[in-house]
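Entry for the shared binder. Reason: the reviewer on the internal report wants the predicted structure included alongside the sequence.
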Amino acid sequence: MTDRYLEDLEQQLVPEVEDRLEAEWLAFTEGRFDGAIFTPARARPCPGALEWPAVSVNQAQADLDAMVLQQYGGCALQLARGSGGMLGVRANYGTGIMPSLFGADLFVMDESTQTLQTTVPMGGAAMEDLVAKGVPALETGLGAAVSAAGRRFAEIARQYPKIGRYIHIYHPDMQGPMDVCEMLWGSEMFLDLLDKPDLAHRVLDLVTETYLRLMTAWNDLVGVASNDWAVHWGLMHGGKIMLRTDSGMNLSPAMYDTFIRPYDERVLAALGGGAVHFCGRGSHYIASACAMPGLRTINLSQPHLNDMEAIFQATVDRGIKLLGLNRDAAEAARGAGRDLHGAVHCW
């Protein structure tokens, strides 16, 4: 079912086009870009001969062939459009991957929403039992589907040399320790951080240990390149991991330092450094986040909710890249005379 499309994609990849784009991204990542705002594009569109089938989100969740068509079809579309994104595929099973390992029930969205599944919180009363059980088996919940997708992607990379060279297998959406903790605990967690801090730390420690074991297993399964960068969402970033810290917007800087930073630092240290993504407001803790050893990149989705000068001071002024920044926010900063140090990427 998938072979004819993968064979077409193999022919669609033009090494000189992909090598040039990779070199541009690498120059930016390594601090050798001397322009104002980094906005790469392929030298030319590279269309394929086939029209790939439309695959819904729910179809891809339920069938591995459909997942292959969804993920590699997205790469074929980028090539045909001549976009500036690096090519990548992942086991695209949503934010509930980690919570599902601990027994959280899946919540599958209606087909019409075209939205990835998530999980139902287990509640604070379940947390003591969760800690007592320890690290779960990595093939429970969505773990088996994630592993199967990783094996399939690795097989494809071995079978098709250009796909293996230019289409990166990036890590699944494992969120970050605090985000997983919130998904397991539910919104009552934010009060329990104050009322039950010892329990919160035990849950966070368990989540972090499980996170590292799952990431290590994933890396062993698909192979990790020796270069000091990775691809995520079409973005090249320094280091190997893209952490999520969406829950941080609900916490004070002091609580960030207590309940988020130590666990994010542990992940960054163990996995070779990397990037942090957050939605919502993060400018209140950004200085502390950017002081973490190994933090190389920030990706934020809503600059209008942030004090962007605080963001710029903590990131580009210190050599930390801003990836995928809203162009209006970047241009507004430039228009006000703000030096972005060639460290901002916009689509």
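Summary line for the report: The first strand starts at residue 87 and ends at 89.
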